[in-house]
Amino acid sequence: MTRSEQLVQLAGRDIELDCTDYVGLQHLMQALYEQLLVRSSAQIESLNQQISVLVEFIRARAERRSKILTAFGLSPSLSGAMEKLLIHCPLPNRNTYLQRWKELENLVQQTKSLNERNGKLLAMHNDILGQIMGSAQAEQVYSPRYY
User: Is the confidence at residue 140, as pLDDT, over 70?
Assistant: First the structure.
């Protein structure tokens, strides 16, 4: 197997690992949402650490894929670049990797939606705390002092 074929296969295996990790990430983000609802600080911290680990793995593989694309003269930001790369993969894996790439694109979009939902919940919590803290401070400023 040539070096080029090895790089293409590595990119394909990384895509498969990303699909697995994104599914895991979605489960963690759902669990995080549930813990945010009940405001369980210890569980939220634990889930955030687990999420960070997965995100770092995903980020490292995406960076490696970008380097592989660049090595083949393809721009990582160019739409369809990964498909062009995977076409060079030997046939038994080519169709699998192309299918997994499409699946990964869908998983990324779903995960972004979950992240936005969690962010909205956090923003709502922050607004509520701000209102509570703001009300308490306003009462102290404008309430009469009894000496």
Answer: no
Distance CA 118, CA 123 (A): 9
CA dihedral 55, 41, 27, 67 (to 10 degrees): 0
- DSSP, residue by residue, the chain: --HHHHHHHHHHHHHHHHHHHHHHHHHHHHHHHHHHHHT-HHHHHHHHHHHHHHHHHHHHHHHHHHHHHHHTT--TTSTTHHHHHHTTS-HHHHHHHHHHHHHHHHHHHHHHHHHHHHHHHHHHHHHHHHHHHHHHHHHHHHSPP--
140/65 Cα distance (integer angstroms): 57
Give residue-wise pLDDT tens across range 90-134.
Answer: 788 899 999 999 999 999 999 999 999 999 998 888 888 778 887
Please tell me the pTM assigned to this model: 0.84
**pLDDT band, very low/low/confident/very high, at 138 (cuts 50, 70, 90):** very low
Both tokens assigned to 121: 């919940």
